Amino acid sequence: MKIRLKFWGVRGSVPCPGPETVRYGGNTACLEIRFPELDDRLLIIDAGSGLRSLGNQMMARDFARGPIDASIFLTHTHWDHIMGFPFFVPIYVPGNKLTIYGPVSYEEDTLQGIVGGQLTYRYFPVREAELAATINYVELKEGRLDLGDGVSLVTRYLNHPVLCLGYRIEYGGKVLCTAYDTEPYRNLFVTDPAAPGYDAEMAREGEEVAAEQNRLHEEFFAGADLLIHDSQYTEQEYLAGKLGWGHSSFERAIAVARRAGVKSLALFHHDPERTDAQLDDLAANYCDREDGLEIFMAQEGMEIEI
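Structure tokens predicted for Metallo-beta-lactamase domain-containing protein (306 residues):
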């Protein structure tokens, strides 16, 4: 049994098209997942700007065989992960059926309100009420979900400034994991005994909680055939002013993958300021095949089979 996937967007934060991003791509997060033995069943992870091109391909290829039935799993609702939705042609076609999954919002807005709310005259010339496809929204928490046909989905909250889910997809003994936007857990309490507000007990508990969450984070990826992990920064950049922004470094993503026994690691969510040449330099520094772990840079248009 196989899982096939294609990257339609690998950037973080904002699209960055231009002559310096041609090879790695300038679209934000969107991943197409297919199951060849299940009549090419389709799952999509995130609706970044790459979703527009995927939608065009779906209309040309899938719709020719009949109405589209697909599921979109949103990792979270930051704009770079949902901005492609209004430009996703399948939502305008009668007969198509789309189910959109995403983390529960504990604020007043629902998942539908946040995603569908982009289609208002304030932001867009078409209203949500005018969409012709049947669209259902399912809010997710941590847990395991049976998607049918032998496909299972496990979810885990990641460390990001808004509720953000990592996904673990299991099918026929194959495991695909994603951690699109996350950074290592750390102790948020004062740890310097000489600093005002230091409390030894709180400092100790903070260390224990951070260590426990990092351990659970790695267990979530254990044994994955492929892990797609946030690596927006180098470790030097991360420590120089990006703490708390909700993203990881190359060094930490690689360390997590090694400890979790992952077979292949895709470095993902590239910083929009990185040029192709800079990503080539980083690939030369970080990508290899040592210790049974294959490491590579995710690239728009790249297709993989596990």
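The first helix runs from residue 51 to 61.
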